[in-house]
Amino acid sequence: MTFWKNHQGFSLVEIMVAMVIMGVVVGAVYSTFINTQRHAYTQEEVVEVQQNLRAGLDFMVKDIRMAEFLTHSDHTALVNAPVQMLVDSNGDGDFDDTDERPLLSLVSATSMHGYARINDATVNGTNLELDVAVNTMQQFADGDSARVFRAVSLTPVTDIYPVDGTPSGDQVTLDISGGGYSAGDIQSGDLLVRMPGGAANGDFPLQIDYRLVDAASGDPNMNELQRRVLDMDGNVIEEFQLIASNISGITLAYLDDAGAVTSDLNKIVAVQITIVGQTDATKTGRSNFSGVKDRSLSTTVKIHNGVML
User: Fold this and answer.
1) b vs e for 152-164, b when ≥16 Cβ sit within 10 Å of the residue's Cβ?
2) pLDDT digits 0-9 by tens, 162-216
3) Which end of the chain has less neighbouring CB within 10 Å, N or C?
4) Which run of H or E residues covers position 208?
5) pLDDT tens digits for range 116-149
């Protein structure tokens, strides 16, 4: 018996149709993959922008709240109060001139945000043991610099001393081996204030400056928010340090006690801040990628320390 086998294969038309279908499927899969990847990269940069906005706003809020802290009435809380921190004053489309990036400047006894009310002080050899208000000692750490101020007279009553050991049990210990302290200098109700590491005994009060500087990017809208600390004679205690990046602008409004906008430094009791950031136009913000994405944060900050404690 003879068996016939069908040796006929695929025709050229069938092969071409299969290749076309496969090409469409592969193209669709590839397009989906690319779009998903672009979305992931874009979201990653958007998250970075949002984190920078929160970091920048958090620093500014803390410093503005502490403005005029333990300072005399002859110092206003703000020294320089720009409405915009980027100003194209000559209309040339950039912010490269010296007057187009104004500083936000404020005054405080410290730039470190930490303080505690003292209940009692005991000298133990070269250590000064301070009993402080409950749950406030955690604002200090071993090696920090600290100084005691009298809230009523708004004056420092000790030199700047290092914190000796990790504070515990509502007690902070200062190393006074450098001298300058006499028993009885501190009274109940005085304030222990954390100071910047580079501050000297004569540095009171301090000035804190904020500025926006051009970032290392091909996108002219990319700026870095930086912060520095000076004494009132203009001597640098801490050089400008990066606070936040991906910043495209900061707008400020200054309010008096009636809630009206004012430019009088003596009447400012609160500051409205709007900080804007965006993705980099040379990265995910490219027009052929996903385009620039903008984000912003706003808040109103009351200056709490314009009165004696």
Assistant:
1) eebebebbbbbbb
2) 999 999 999 999 999 999 999 899 999 999 999 998 899 999 899 999 999 999 8
3) N
4) strand 206-214
5) 999 999 999 999 999 999 999 999 999 999 999 9
Q: Which one, of 84, 290, 111, lies nearest residue 208 by Cα? A: 111
Number of neighbours of residue 7 by Cβ within 10 angstroms: 5
Q: How buried is 40 (Cβ within 10 angstroms: 0-12 exposed, 13-18 middle, 19+ buried)?
A: exposed
Neighbours of 75 (CB within 10 A): 17
CA gap 191, 224 in Å, rounded = 34
Element (H, E) at 23: helix 12-65
Joined tokens for residue 92: 């040339």
Structural domains of the chain in order of their starting residue, each with its CATH number: 45-110+203-302 (no CATH), 115-195 (2.40.10)
Place of tokens 């580079």: 198
